[in-house]
Amino acid sequence: MIANVAQYIEKKGLPVRRSILLLLTLCLALPLCACGPKQPAAVTDPPASDPLASEPAGPAQTGPAADPTGDPAPTPEPTPTPEPLYQFGTPVAGSEPAADDSYFEDAAFVGDSRTDGLRLYGGLRAGDYLCKTSMSVFHVNDSDYTVEVGGQKLTLMQALTAKQYGKIYIMLGLNELGYPSSSYETQLNAFLDQVIAAQPNAVIYLELMPPVNDALTTKSWQKNANVDVFNEINIRAAADKHIALLNVAEVYRDENGQLREDYASGDGCHFKAEAYPYWADYLRSHIIDRDWYFASREGAQ
């Protein structure tokens, strides 16, 4: 373009100064002519979506999936509260009485002359009576103090080993009152160990001794001061050996802690015949649940 302008100036014979101004103007205008509005970039259509492309993952699930039915989640069953265990060394509480005396068919009643009175006058005929006058914890293996079972004379421990029982009731201590209490405690615990070993499936009840009547007893050692000491030993033994405790004594005790006069025989320690049925009634109405007993034994180990 500049060459054409120079030819034009030469042809027209324009003055030099004017020619220079014309060329300068042209030079300044050329760059401006080159700068024009830019054309917009070609717009291309977005690519068609690929039907095989993965869908966006979306937000991560942080909880259980919603129930499509819209039903609420079921409420969990509450955890049952475990039944408290029987506290060994505390008397068995009153219960629903046995339906009839067939409940005692698998029972053994262990004791001395008082238990023999229960056999004779208590009206409780079911079960085996393993009792002997003057029996004590010191004579349970003594052949001079035998009990009769099925026509055989056996020591007390032989009888308890010969047959399995469902329940065993033990009432001893009256003939031991003249011994040192420590000797009674040692021998009682040894005897209970033998019974538990020989009768692992039996519910074993240790009965508290009923009181004597101090005014009627003639033996200085056969007094309630000793009965109370020996009954404390019985309570400890029941707790330590994990066996049931029966407070038969409460049936016969008056307000002063004595054997009731209207229940007492002439010697002050045995009962009148008409008083023995109260003992039998107590046994009928103080029954520990068998499963609870053994669960408590297991829990106490």
Description:
By secondary structure, this protein is an alpha/beta fold. The protein has a domain of 200 residues: 3-Layer(aba) Sandwich (Rossmann fold). It is 35% helix and 10% strand. It is built from 9 helices and 7 strands, in the order ααβαβββαβαβαβααα. The protein has a 5-stranded parallel β-sheet with strand order 2-1-5-6-7, sandwiched between helices. Strands 3-4 form a two-stranded antiparallel ribbon. Strand 3 and strand 4 form a beta hairpin. Helix 1 packs antiparallel against helix 2 and helix 5 packs parallel to helix 6. It starts with a helix and ends with a helix.
Features:
single chain; 301 residues; alpha/beta; 9 helices; 7 strands
Q: Which word captures the global form? A: globular
Uncertain regions: pLDDT < 50 for 5+ in a row? 29-61
Biggest pleated sheet: 5 strands, parallel
Which structural class matches the secondary elements? alpha/beta
Strand count: 7
Structure annotation, total helices: 9
Q: So, the CATH homologous superfamily of the domain at 101-300?
A: SGNH hydrolase
CATH class of the domain at 101-300: Alpha Beta
Radius of gyration: 53 Å
CATH hierarchy: architecture of the domain at 101-300? 3-Layer(aba) Sandwich
**Would you give the CATH topology of the domain at 101-300?**
Rossmann fold
How would you state the average pLDDT, rounded? 85
